[in-house]
Design goal:
alpha+beta; two-stranded antiparallel ribbon; 32% helix
Length: 593
């Protein structure tokens, strides 16, 4: 813990607090100066009251205020940051500094951040200058964002959380990162991930073991678990992630968060360390649907990318869509959901029963809101069977070789190929992945088995479409994971249900659904989430459904360990964060597979 910081103030989770900062003194001419000053004082008070009303209009209760800070960033949203910023309650530098202070204070507990952007405060200064000049544009103006450390961003190395890639230095941003910057975002830093985004435990040779913010004996999901833990702990407004099988939704499930896996092709994947051409997508994780919609709008604004030819699949009417507009209107009344019964584990246990109970409760709530829920029992919806179609082992070596060979990737020393990396001894492969790495070394997209899997994926996609038509469905719903997120040291992140969307390329929005009963390790319980899967390019409809669920059945709660303010700090420069690699469980050896 930093000597300059201290915890202050209890906080009611799920709410945003702001506090008044004395505005700069105004000077008036002699004539009527007393009247003008009195009027100005009244105006200031009324303006302050108005801002508080705006900031709290969406809240069911009032929080305790942190009066020592200009702006309380706990559970802050894009709107609340902008309200405070544009009414001079705070500055962009103060906002960025407040999030950095939280990282300094709480990251030693969760180990979510690998590095901070050394230019973050300089970028904030430039944004403050733009405010002074009246040049404020961009839906993400001064919004701090953390990137999963497989996204290229020029100020920081792109490591995949792998020791052997610690010096890998991109010479240009990923297109999605450029889009975030153009919208005004401040890239705050890079988050840990399960090394090379290959599993869901979020443990790595460079970043160590990330810890679940709600239960320190459990993992945070993954592979985007660092971004998920960071957003859940209020280190940023939202985070980016990738998803090859479960990786955007699993951390949202473990962190009481919202996330999206987009339709394949909607968002360019260029400039992101790849795993699978067929299954990879990029997306975001946030604390509320509105921020998620803004993130989706900005990331999808990249449009067609000639370096990622699946972006050509996007229909013209979808390009340039503002997903924020999709949040409003409509209702849950009349919606038809298909519930995938095969995505539950019906064997009662302390790990599965809480999930089954939360999902049963959610189904009843949806019915009570006027929706119809149809039980889908078709045998094809079996995650064990579907997992056999996963094509990562055939594609991983080829796509990683292509990424490492790019001329716009610098840094030295670093590996130039898959084989060089996995012969370096500077990596972490959990024992359960050893077979996958060995197979990837010799497998390729020329394998007959690969082509057979692609044909079966096409058959599955057609069967999924038929399920929607036959039952006249708006979406499928199911738990993200059949059991609670697993304990640290487990052999794998078992029980996850993300494979259906990964294979078919269909869009999913993840929403918090509930919590397990509280325990000694989890004071408010372990988060449990639900996936909402739709037809191709139905992100707008899914966001609308998610927003109605969030408003009618609010679930998100802040992790208790981070439920305290951090004293404001005046930074001269961005501090250096050093992840804890000493916490890697002994069952995950370094440098062998």
């Amino acid at each position: 813990m930093s000597d300059s910081g201290s915890l202050r103030g209890a906080y009611t989770p799920g709410r945003t607090a702001t506090a008044y900062r004395k505005p700069k003194r105004q000077h008036f001419g002699r004539a009527g100066s007393a009247i003008k000053m009195a009027a100005c004082s009244i105006s200031r008070v009324m303006n302050h009251l108005l801002i508080q009303l705006v900031a709290f209009a969406w809240l069911p209760e009032s929080p305790a205020w942190a009066l020592s800070n200009a702006f309380d960033v706990r559970e802050a949203s894009i709107d609340s940051v902008h309200n405070a910023l544009f009414t001079q309650i705070t500055t962009c530098r103060e906002i960025v500094s407040a999030f950095i202070a939280r990282v300094e204070e709480f990251n030693p507990t969760v180990n979510a951040i690998i590095s901070l952007n050394p230019e973050a405060l300089s970028i904030a200064n430039k944004l403050d200058e733009r405010i002074a000049a009246g040049n404020v544009t961009g839906s993400l103006f001064c919004i701090p964002v953390v990137l999963k450390d497989n996204y290229d961003a020029v100020e920081t190395n792109t490591t995949g959380a792998c020791l052997d890639l610690a010096n890998s230095k991109p010479l240009e941003d990923a297109p999605t990162v450029t889009a975030l910057r153009n919208a005004g975002a401040v890239i705050l830093g890079k988050a840990n991930l399960h090394e090379m985004a290959l599993e869901g435990l979020t443990v790595s040779s460079l970043g160590g073991q990330t810890v679940n913010p709600y239960d320190k004996t459990r993992t945070p999901g993954g592979s985007s678990g660092g971004a998920g833990a960071a957003v859940a702990s209020n280190f940023a407004i939202f985070g980016t992630g990738t998803d090859t099988v479960n990786s955007l939704r699993s951390p949202a499930n473990a962190g009481s968060l919202f996330s999206f896996r987009p339709t394949r092709g909607l968002i360019s994947r260029v400039g992101v360390i790849p795993v699978s051409f067929t299954q990879d997508t990029v997306g975001a994780i946030a604390r509320n649907p509105k921020d998620l919609a803004v993130a989706l709008t900005v990331m999808a604004s990249v449009g067609f990318d000639p370096n990622d030819n699946v972006t050509a699949l996007v229909p013209p009417e979808v390009r340039g869509r503002d997903y924020s507009a999709s949040l409003y209107g409509g209702s849950l009344t009349g919606r038809r959901f298909g519930f995938l019964d095969g995505f539950l584990n019906h064997t009662a246990s302390a790990e599965t029963t809480p999930v089954n109970d939360v999902m049963a409760d959610m189904v009843e709530k949806l019915k009570g809101a006027g929706a119809t829920v149809v039980n889908i029992t078709e045998s094809i919806y079996n995650t064990v069977t579907l997992a056999a179609l996963d094509v990562q082992i055939y594609e991983f070596r080829e796509v990683l070789d292509a990424y490492l060979a790019r001329p716009r990737l610098g840094g030295s020393p670093r590996p130039d190929s898959f084989a060089e990396l996995y012969n370096s001894g500077r990596f972490l492969v959990i024992p359960g992945q050893s077979g996958m790495i060995r197979s990837s070394l010799v497998s390729s997209t020329a394998n007959t088995a690969y082509l057979d899997s692609l044909r079966k994926i096409q058959d599955l996609t057609q069967a999924l479409d038929a399920t929607f038509v036959r039952n006249n469905l708006d979406a499928l719903i199911y738990p993200q994971q059949k059991n609670l997120v697993v304990k640290i040291g487990s052999p794998s992140q078992s029980g996850r249900n993300g494979i259906l969307a990964a294979l078919t390329g269909r869009p999913v929005i993840h929403v918090p659904a509930g919590f397990s009963p509280p325990s000694e390790d989890a004071p408010i319980g372990v988060p449990i989430g639900m996936e909402i899967l739709g037809r191709p390019f139905a992100e707008g409809l899914l966001l609308n459904i998610a927003n109605h669920i969030a408003e009618k059945f609010p679930v998100r709660r802040m992790p208790p360990f981070a439920n305290g303010t951090v004293e404001a700090r005046a930074y001269e420069s961005v501090p250096v964060i050093r992840p804890d690699t000493g916490n890697i469980p002994g069952v995950y050896p370094i440098g062998v597979f």
